Amino acid sequence: MAGFNNNRKKLMLGLSLSLSMISLGFMYAKWPQRKAAVSPEQQFLLRVNAQKRFPSMPLLMRSGMQQEYDFLSATLSNSVSLDERKMNALSTSAGRMDNLARELFSYERDLRAANKPREDVQFFREHAFTLGQLSQDMQEAALRQDTAHMNAAVKQMAQACSECHLRFQVKLADGSKAKPVQR
């Protein structure tokens, strides 16, 4: 008889757990659905803001973007022939530059917190987007081994970076002031 009571207890426990799970399911189904009214652009910015890997924008520039740009421009400025291995390295570097350009969007909130005018924030956003597009173009050109497009993309990157540095009066990594790039 003792075994019968144990089985009965297990059965009752199982039934009570099952009923409680079912009741939770009904409660969840009737729970009001609340959706935040967020535009797709705001959703993108929220997603990007969560991916901030560098504590400050100057650190991102010095330890990330400047190094990638220096590698890209130095490799392309040498008249050495670019074999497949070097093209792959350029493509990889351009891909890293694209990731860093995407991360730039996460610093838009810092500009707003510094009470920068709306025009400056828009200018920053446009140039960050341009930098990302140029990085993607550079990566695709490297994969196609198209040095003419790669050189054009590096020159346009220099132009975009220079315009942003001049607008926000930011010194370059070496401490010098940015100068307008001749087109």
What does it look like?
Mean pLDDT is 78; it is low at 28-36. This protein has seven helices and no strands. With 183 residues, it is an all-alpha fold.
Topology:
Elements: H1 2-30, H2 40-49, H3 57-77, H4 84-104, H5 108-113, H6 118-144, H7 147-168
Helix pairs in contact: 3-4, 3-7, 4-6, 6-7
What would the keywords be for this entry?
183 residues, 2 domains, 74% helix, mainly alpha, Four Helix Bundle (Hemerythrin (Met), subunit A)
CATH top-level class of the largest domain:
Mainly Alpha
Order of helices and strands: HHHHHHH
Radius of gyration: 27 Å
Number of domains: 2
Structural class: mainly alpha
The total beta strand count reads 0
Helical amount among residues, as a percent range? over 70%
* CATH architecture heading of the largest domain: Up-down Bundle
Give the oligomer, counting copies of the same chain as homo and different chains as hetero: single chain
- Percentage of residues in DSSP E strands: under 5%
Span of the ends, CA to CA: 95 Å
The number of distinct helices, counting runs of at least 4 residues, comes to 7
| Overall pLDDT level | 78
Shape: elongated
CATH topology of the largest domain, what is it called? Four Helix Bundle (Hemerythrin (Met), subunit A)
Main beta sheet: strand number and arrangement?
none
Which stretches of 5+ consecutive residues score pLDDT under 50?
28-36
